[in-house]
# Entry
Amino acid sequence: MDLASIVYLGMTFGLLVIFVMIVVRTYSKKRKDEGEIAKYRMLDDD
Amino acid sequence: MWEKKPILLLVLATCAIMVGTIVTMILPFAWVNTEADRIEGVTPYTALQQEGRDIYIRDGCNNCHTQTVRPLVPEVLRYGDYSKSGEFVYDRPFLWGSKRTGPDLARLGGKYPDAWHYKHMESPRSMVPKTNMPDYGWYSNNLLDPQMIQRKMETLGFPYTAEEIKDLEGKNDMDAMVAYLQKLGSDIPWRDAAETTIVGDLVNPYADANQETISGWAPIYADNCAACHGPNMEGEIGPELIGEDYDDEILFTIIYTGITDGGMPSFSNLGTDKVWKLTNYIRTYQAEGSQ
Amino acid sequence: MENQTYNYAIVRSFVTWSMIWGLVAVLVGVIVSLQMVNPDLNFPPYLTFGRLRPVHTNAGIYGWGIGVIFAAFYYIVQRLCKVPIWSDKLAKFQLWLFNATITASAVTLLLGYTTSKEYHEMEWPIDVMVVILWVAFSINIIMTILKRKEEQMYISLWYMMAAIVGVAILYLVNSAAVPVSFFKSYSAYAGTNDANVQWWFGHNAVAMVLTAPFLGMFYYFLPKTTGVPIFSHRLSITAFWSLIFMYLWTGAHHLLWTPVPDWIQTLAMGFSIMLIAPSWGSVFNGYLSMNGQWHQMRENYLVKFLILGITFYGLQTLQGPMQAIRTFSAFIHYTDWVPAHIHMGTMGWVSMICFASIYYLIPRIYGRELYSIPLADLHFWLTLVGQLIWSISLWIAGVLQAGMWNAMNSDGSLTYTFMETMVEMYPYWWARVLGGVIYMAGLVIFIYNIYMSVKKGEPTAVPTITTEGRA
Ligand code: HEM
Ligand code: HEM
# Structure
């Protein structure tokens, strides 16, 4: 494997980790209500 | 967290945007247009050429024409040697374009004689009847503004002489455009390198073709040669072809490899078959004289 | 009940002006499509193809696209934040600066003052106007969000905020130039660098103008129209971050096989393919929001526009990544295939959402019902048919053209001369004229319908605009 492939692979892996972290955070049980409330609130009228 | 904090959201969004920006847009400045890209022989535009380039931009020729040849076989065959980064270091802005309604112009310089361009720009359809390129005959009435051009050369930091600027007096948009078109892609000596050589023996495959078959090849002449040699070979930009009496091999060679210094383009991209047909067509026509 | 304090006047003005610029864009589109089949329609020096085409593209993207974005977001931001706009004066100023900028752009482009950089053709004085315009809009939107009464920030606001910073960065960097005079400047970057900066800008103009704000609008108008919330707010958030992160890497897919360094091209290719995920995240979110509501496709003309719009977006974001693959690009780049891609995006996705937004807004900002729903249906079909004729004929044309450009004889020579390939395009270009005229007919009907609604429409049942749900 040449340097370029290692860099590409490393980058891909790094991005994957960040992505998984975001998904885990967004979809954690704790945040379910918090994350979804906005979609109901926008339908309420003032 | 950021779900309810607009400023934080803006900051984070900016960060997200900046990562790709830094890697693919800012970092490349370290590699592009550096010493490693430099190509011997690539020179800045002269005052006249630069003005031609600005006219090209003004009239949006880049909306129909590209200026970059990709390293792909059919493309190199059609247009010439593929483009290299170092050839564009004086291009502000770049003019690679994104749509080929007309052909690529990156390797245009030296392809045709000046007279061809004057006639073509004046009225493309007089030479290529089915083209949709607009007429630019009005260029001949627009005189250049030497002071302005001098200022442009100053801004760009390109070398120029007082004489050069003085010579612009009385020249028009058309002269500038043709000067620019002739410079395109000719800084590197690719034409010499690409000099077509014919391999193998030259044997005329159509030596026995009859008159009728040969007349059927007239459209190949009309499409490729008539613009310069006239519809009846009477000559115009190129010389009259009637009255010459070359033998098959010589005629084939002239058409196939061209006489590039003299303004006769190479037609190797038509393929040997079509070039042989032309050879026979011209020979027959020559023998008969114009009808 | 604070409705009365909302500033709908500014929304009304932007709706009107965006429709005017939309009509200009499409009219000029039809004109340039005619010039491509008949060069006698070029009237030098001002009205030649090379000068009119940028008028078409800029009027389309900036006059029509951004005009509707301004209209829609001045409405959306007030409703989602439950406060009136931060500054009415600034908004008014911005409206007139917007019109002045678009007018000045059209005039200077016709006069030949251009930088030639696609979607950034306007010379530097207009760049200055654009910057002021965008700053004015940004301040107004951000300040409104900051003093909002509704704590939650719905996804539409996220997309708009990302677009605000995105456009600012892109536009500023790409406009760097050294002026020679008031009407002429030279790019601060040269050759390959200039190309790379330009297409970093170019592709992200697609992201930050033709994608992000329109997704925001889609996410707002769809649930408001159907009356049911979107499928998942968290999915929209995940897609949001992925989208704005990944788009910026992909500019060089416009420069495959050019002298731009290979690794930039490879990154662009990789990220373009990954972009399918967040793009389709939004598409699925839209479709799943329709669960149990599909009957509304028949009953509610607004839903038709929105769902067709997101469908075109879905197709666009599958086709785009395909075009970003080196081998495929080698084939279709520079051909008529690409305009077909573009117009599925602009006439399908972007314009469908624009139409839906305006139809939605009219009763709410004028207090009058739509004049005629059958006309709106007719408009829908004309738009769809016109668009399909446009794109399908040009896809065929592009493949044909690419095939001919690449065809080689057994002796290694090319089969066709350039002109032999070009004359084959004429029938397809004529078909495009037909598609364009049909589309324009739809647009004229649309404008007529809106005009009549404002003049003669029935007053809305509940006078203040609080009726949500069915349009
Ligand atoms: C995942 C999403 C997308 C990807 C990866 C993508 C990819 C591409 C590629 C590779 C090209 C260059 C084609 C060529 O010249 O060979 C292109 C052109 C273009 N695309 Fe897309 N596309 C996407 C979505 C969109 C959307 C949603 C629009 C909205 C209208 C759009 C509008 C355009 C425009 C205007 C151009 C023309 C640029 C030019 O002037 O050459 N694209 N796209
Ligand atoms: C009736 C509708 C329309 C017609 C007939 C039309 C026609 C055209 C034509 C003939 C071209 C030049 C293509 C070429 O050079 O090969 C073009 C380019 C373009 N049009 Fe349209 N157009 C229409 C609607 C729109 C709309 C509504 C938008 C934007 C919102 C738009 C955006 C563009 C863009 C961005 C390009 C540049 C393409 C490129 O860079 O390759 N068009 N259009």
